[in-house]
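Two folds, back to back.
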Amino acid sequence: QVQLVESGGGSVQPGGSLRLSCTSSEIPFSIYVMGWYRQAPGKVRELVAEMSTRSDGTYADYADSAKGRFVISRENAKNTVYLEMNDLKPEDTAVYYCNAQFSRLNYWGQGTQVTVSS
């Protein structure tokens, strides 16, 4: 089973920032659709940000709640995807999961906890 390894979660006060990282030694992120999802207690898992590479460029899409505050990026040399989160709010508290999709292949990381609280 392919492993996606996440890191960077933690506790932060409202208005703070965190950067999540996701890496793998087994699959090339450059050809996968890479996404960050989150799941808060009692809620369904939701897409936060997604990055895909097509013939005409690389595209990023964001949930409305993430627009203007979160940035997804990829560093091909390190085969790592990041989620830079700024101006964090208590409602951003959740377990964040890295996801990689290619055709019928679909892989998940183990999740990293993000807690935003004063």
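---
second:
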Amino acid sequence: QVQLVESGGGLVQAGGSLRLSCAASRTIFSFNTMGWYRQTPGNQRELVASITSGGSTDYADSVKARFTISRDNAKNTVYLQMNSLKPEDTAVYYCRAFGWNADAYWGQGTQVTVSS
């Protein structure tokens, strides 16, 4: 069973920065895409950013130019650098991994709270 463990969430003031980490229990080369999603109460999870095994990235319009997704293959870890945070970025952030055989996995989530 694959485990994805997120860390790095917390409370930050608007305009501040946080870096989320997602550590996988197996090599991230075994996933064709990894991503970060977020969810607020009463809403569906939405894609924030994704990165493929080849390094291609994609971002939600709301976070472009503020967030950066990256991967460290040696550490089996994917990061989400979040800058210029806004109160509307407050959510539980989840790591997601998509395997090559249509398998997919979620992390347990980490809370990000941005105060105004």
